[in-house]
Design goal:
The complex is a heterodimer of chains A (195) and B (563). Chain A has a single domain, classed as Pyruvate-ferredoxin oxidoreductase, PFOR, domain III (Pyruvate-ferredoxin Oxidoreductase, domain 3, 3-Layer(aba) Sandwich). Chain A is 43% helix and 21% strand. Chain A has helices at residues 16-29, 76-81, 102-105, 114-124, 133-140, 146-156, 164-174, 177-194; strands at 4-11, 34-37, 48-55, 68-73, 86-95, 127-131. In chain A, helix 6 crosses helix 8 and helix 7 runs antiparallel to helix 8 (177-194). The radius of gyration of chain A is 16 Å and the shape is globular. Chain A starts with a strand and ends with a helix. With 563 residues, chain B is of the alpha/beta class. Chain B has helices at residues 17-27, 42-53, 67-79, 90-106, 132-138, 148-165, 175-178, 210-232, 252-264, 283-291, 305-316, 339-350, 380-394, 429-440, 451-467, 507-513, 527-539, 553-559, and strands at residues 12-16, 32-35, 60-63, 84-89, 112-118, 142-143, 169-174, 180-185, 238-240, 245-250, 270-275, 277-279, 295-299, 323-324, 401-402, 444-450, 473-478, 519-522, 544-549. In chain B, the strands form four sheets. Chain B has a seven-stranded mixed sheet, sandwiched between helices. Chain B has a five-stranded mixed sheet with strand order 9-11-10-13-14, sandwiched between helices. In chain B, strands 15-16-17-19-18 form a five-stranded parallel sheet, sandwiched between helices. The two termini of chain B are 25 Å apart. Strand 2 of chain A pairs antiparallel with strand 8 of chain B.
């Protein structure tokens, strides 16, 4: 199996950790080696939350500059911030709905022009899938399922050695029962948009 | 049933390093555990807490008021023959160090494990001290896992080593081993756990008056030599490759080295020694290793702990070889590593080139807005800060006010627009430093401390401040939980996790008990009243305590506001 370095990035509260954990669980259940790293503590108070999933026997918990094979971003500004971790051959999956940081209101910096930067990604990186995961999550029944929509895209693009069925099983076993249906729907919406 | 109590031996679970430590402790029959929470160690205590809450739990767990108390609880249990564990973040070890240094002298009867979780790069800490030095300082054996599986395995092993040597064993993790998730194969849980022991009196051992301590120091040095010979054969030290370039690593650095060797394809150029038992050093093992390589690169975060030891061994064996690491400039003594950093160093010593990926030109990316952590929407601390600030403004005192602060969510009061956090050292320092500022300056001193921090190390400082007649206003931000680390209970809490029925100690009773009479209570959400109360508390020139009572909104959500 090829090695793969997957970087998940988002804003505290978006469910990045659950997404990386579900992927890690599905990979482990398929009998393949996996390492998942998480950010806990102070960084979770509304800050940027990053996690990584390393496949194919890689053990490092961090992804260095230019070394991410796949970037899964839950928020477009965070996708731009993480571009330095990607190379021209990276796949980028990003939600297009901004969460404007409070520092913008304080005038510390401007929120970037998302349309421009999404085009920049499409022009410069091997594979880019930018979607409104928030609307899709709402369609699935809960805005909280943005993370699983993006997992659906990741699987739909065939970028990870996990089948849709395997991820469905993982969701059934590892997501709180009352959220399972919405998450399965979110997975399927993400999966289909990618295919 | 808690998932970590699975009896399914041989099953694989995707566990966090911290969860794997808990599982290892349970498998080893640990029956007493105590901790004060602190990132990156918190999930160890949290899981032990929930496991211990169940009826007929095989383990007793408590959140002690601080790390020193927790270590004493665990030490006594181990002295009485009951296996025990305590865990803390790196700076927590400073608080417990008074215990640690003498505990090494008296030792234990049953196995005792001390987990220290270090935080290179300071993801959620005030410094990045390297706690491996504590192992050397106290003369205690130390193990360092590289993965969740090793975290489980080494915890089990640590209990065995501790019992064999009658010394506590330090298990040292870092953020990147505590908070990494990986498959862990479970071992069997014991059918019977020894929960009660007998303390056997021995005045020549357990009471280190000078005459006894002199004997026990000698015993300690003998035991640590025994530990050294155990380490020579230790299964978690391993050697791979036969190449001329030596590499030595421990902890998460092992992961970076392994990935780098694979990606550079230079396994044949190197001999790689991974150390799992990093104190006392396996001198013979390292000596044999050094003799078969031409030079050596030491890969370790923070201080040159292994590097310096290797230089001593080189000297002792008259080996004239280059030792690369911190002193050679290959690595920094600051911050955590990343894979590329390690790859570059290995590329430099082996001469194998790194294949650089093509990266698009990002020079046109503008300065992006940051997302600093911030107090939650609706957080009561924000209201308390605003009320205190409004009161100071009304009194015309804002200009000369300074704000010693403390450790918790409320340290975020540092950031605009609040900016009411001016001086911080450690847990409880708000109180002691206010005393110092009060005798050395003419500032209006308003300091802030959380409820859990108050119990951790605020009380004795407040007694000292009152007795020595210092003048400041201490604001206790009582949100009824230890919020920053994930809502652990403390003695003052009114809102409780289900089934938590320990007696409550109201903070105002404690303050009153010290003899302080200037005590005020505010509800920070009632703005007008809060400002008026603050004005009353701040107008005088003597010591006053304002207790701002309003539960953490996240905590309320979690336990539905149950009292």
């Amino acid at each position: 199996m090829d090695t793969k370095k997957i970087l998940f990035t988002g804003v505290g509260g978006q469910g990045t950790l659950l997404a990386s954990r579900l992927l890690g669980q599905a990979v482990m259940d398929a009998g393949m080696p996996v390492r998942v790293s998480e950010v806990h503590g102070m960084a979770q108070r509304g800050g940027v939350v990053e996690s990584t999933v390393m496949l194919g026997g890689l053990n490092s918990p961090i992804i260095s500059a230019g070394e991410a094979d796949i970037l899964v971003s839950f928020e477009p500004l965070e996708a731009i911030r993480a571009l330095g971790r990607c190379s021209a051959s990276s796949t980028i999956i990003t939600n297009t709905v901004p969460i404007v940081p409070f520092t913008v209101g304080l005038g510390q910096a401007e929120y970037p022009d998302i349309e421009y930067w999404l085009q920049f990604m499409k022009d410069n990186y091997a594979r880019v899938c930018a979607i409104d995961a928030e609307t899709m999550a709402k369609d699935a029944g809960t805005v909280k399922a943005v993370n699983v929509v993006l997992l659906g895209v990741l699987i739909g693009l065939g970028e990870v050695p996990v089948s849709r069925e395997a991820m469905e099983e993982t969701i059934k076993h590892h997501v709180k029962p009352k959220f399972v249906d919405a998450n399965l729907k979110a997975l399927s919406l993400g999966y289909e948009v990618a295919c | 049933m808690h998932p970590l109590l699975s009896r399914d031996s041989g099953k694989k679970m995707l566990l966090l390093g911290n969860e794997a430590i808990v599982r290892g402790a349970l498998e080893a029959g640990c029956a007493v555990a105590a901790a004060y929470p602190g990132t990156p160690s918190s999930e160890i205590g949290n899981n032990l807490f929930f496991i211990s809450q169940a009826e007929n739990s095989s383990i007793y767990f408590e959140f002690s008021t601080n790390e020193k108390v927790a270590m004493e609880v665990a030490a006594a249990a181990a002295a009485a023959g009951v296996r025990s564990l305590t865990c803390m973040k790196h700076v927590g070890m400073n608080v417990a160090s008074d215990v640690l240094m003498t505990l090494a002298y008296v030792g234990v009867k049953a196995g005792m494990v001390i987990v220290t979780a270090d935080d290179p790069s300071m993801h959620s800490s005030q410094n990045e001290q390297d706690n491996r030095i504590y192992a050397k300082f106290a003369n205690l054996p130390m193990l360092e896992p590289t993965s969740p599986q090793e975290a489980r395995d080494m915890t089990v092993e640590a209990f065995r080593i501790s019992e064999a040597l009658e010394l506590p064993v330090i298990l040292r993790t870092t953020t990147r081993t505590s908070h990494v998730r990986g498959p862990v194969e479970l071992g069997p849980l014991p059918r019977d756990v020894k929960k009660r022991g007998v303390f056997e009196k021995d005045m020549r051992r357990w009471v280190p008056v000078p005459a006894v301590a002199r004997i026990r120091h000698k015993v300690l040095l003998k035991q640590i030599e025994k530990a050294r010979s155990m380490n020579e054969e230790f299964g978690f030290n391993s050697l791979s490759g036969t190449g001329p370039v030596g590499i030595v690593a421990s902890g998460v650095s092992v992961c970076y080295v392994e990935d780098a060797l694979m990606e550079l394809g230079c396994e044949d150029e190197v001999s790689f020694l991974r150390l799992g038992f990093t104190y006392p050093f396996p001198k013979e093992l390292i000596g044999c290793f050094l003799k078969r390589v031409e030079n050596v690169l030491v890969v370790e975060e923070l201080e040159p702990f292994i590097e310096n030891e290797i230089k001593i061994i080189c000297h002792d064996l008259s080996l004239d070889m280059a030792v690369y690491g911190k002193a050679s400039g290959h690595f920094s003594r600051m911050y955590e590593f990343d894979p590329l950093m390690v790859k570059k160093a290995i590329s430099d010593v082996t001469g194998v080139d790194i294949q650089k990926p093509a990266m698009p030109d990002l020079s046109s990316v503008p300065t992006l807005p940051m997302r600093p952590p911030t107090l939650c929407k609706g957080c009561p601390h924000r209201e308390t800060y605003n009320a205190a600030k409004a009161a100071l403004q009304d009194l015309g005192m804002e200009e000369k006010a300074i704000y010693p602060t403390d450790i918790g969510c409320y340290t975020l009061g540092l950031l605009p627009p609040i900016q009411m956090a001016d001086y911080l050292l450690c847990m409880g320092s708000s109180v002691g430093s206010s005393a110092g500022f009060s005798i050395s300056t003419d500032h209006k001193i308003v300091s802030f401390i959380g409820d859990s921090t108050f119990f951790h190390s605020g009380i004795s400082s407040l007694a000292s401040a009152y007795h020595n007649q210092h003048r400041f206003c201490l604001v206790v931000l009582d949100n009824s939980t230890t919020a920053m680390t994930g809502h652990q209970p403390n003695p003052g809490i009114e809102i409780r996790p289900p089934g938590y029925d320990k007696p409550r100690i109201p903070i105002d009773d404690v303050v009153r008990g010290l003899g302080i009479t200037n005590i005020y209570k505010v509800n920070p959400y009632k703005k007008k009243e809060a400002v008026e109360t603050f004005k009353a508390a701040l107008s005088g020139d003597e010591l006053s305590v304002v207790i701002a009572e309003a539960p953490c909104i996240l905590y309320c959500k979690k336990f539905g506001g149950k009292k």
